[in-house]
Specification:
Layout: H1 2-21, H2 72-81, H3 101-110
The chain binds calcium ion (4 copies).
Length: 128
């Protein structure tokens, strides 16, 4: 029994290790883009839209000033984008094309954290 558990744990660890490195074979969010190439590896975003070009997709990137975290500077930008169709602030595509309360909800959840995770930018400043 103990041996089985140990074997299972080892298998999980071995299986999990390459997942952290983002091998091209896994597709965690099932959007058809493999984790190692997916600019939002845990959010389904088959379109891979990335308006500010920081390799962190719009659907997981509320860090508009490229500081690496989502903070008050980003909030200032978001308020300016509210009500517009600026894709940078639209985190609800393809549900809608305008920046509204759904996007504000995403921003609020992101506040104080880091953008991403992205499979393509490990360790960069804008999308850590
Ligand atoms: Ca994916
Ligand atoms: Ca994705
Ligand atoms: Ca981005
Ligand atoms: Ca920021």
């Amino acid at each position: 029994m103990k041996l089985t558990l140990l074997t299972a744990t080892l298998a999980l660890l071995l299986w999990g290790m390459p997942a952290m490195a983002g091998p091209p074979g896994l597709d965690t969010d099932l959007d058809g883009v493999h984790d190692g190439l997916d600019n939002c590896s845990t959010v389904a975003n088959a379109a891979q839209d990335d308006t500010d070009g920081d390799d962190c997709g719009n659907l997981c990137d509320a860090n508009y000033d490229q500081s690496g975290t989502v903070g008050f500077g980003d909030f200032g930008s978001f308020t300016l984008g509210f009500g517009t169709t600026d894709e940078l602030y639209n985190h609800t595509e393809p549900v809608d094309d305008t920046v509204g309360f759904g996007d504000f909800g995403f921003f609020t959840l992101s506040f104080g954290g880091t953008p991403g995770p992205s499979g393509t930018t490990a360790g960069t400043a804008a999308c850590p």
